[in-house]
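task queued by scheduler; priority normal; single chain, no ligands, no partner chains; default sampling; output format set to structure tokens
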Amino acid sequence: MVNWNLIKTHWYDMIRVVLSIKAGKVMPSTLLRKLGSYSKKNRLYQAFLELGKVVRTMFLLDYVSNVALRHEITAITNIVEMYNAFLDWVFFGKLGAITENDPIEQEKRLKYLDLVASAVILQNTVDMSLAIQTLMSQEELIPMRHLAAMSPYITRHIKRYGDYVVNLHNIPQPLEAAINLPPEIFET
């Protein structure tokens, strides 16, 4: 149950807090730390909790009654889960566990993972774009639903444990040529 009286009592203080954050006069982290200390005694913190209950309830009611919103959230969640599964696949060494206790080393490992994942995603996107361009040059119509189902998180063509020879003399074609896809060719 929402304590509406608490929200009403501290409404102007809550608005001042929001305006202070928007104006940049106080950092959100500082404010949260201050509000979070002695939270059982801090009435403003409790008022924000009550307001959070209202916002959460309104969102849940919208979620339950809005089919399009549910589909959108499910689709976005699926994309995020596909990306996380892709990262797990890419980060296979030591079963994906970061065994370093040094925060700098941990950050380096995560940045390296992001770099490798981004490189694979870019190469997958270029390869898919070139395949689509080849189909289009053969005057194949590609249904938009097929394109919408494509994902750059594919891994079955990658040899994780393979040998990779880097040829520094092999200059790739310009990226613009690889991903130039005119939308008017696609069938809807």
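post-processing summary
- The mean pLDDT is 86.
- The CA atoms of residues 142 and 186 lie 6 Å apart.
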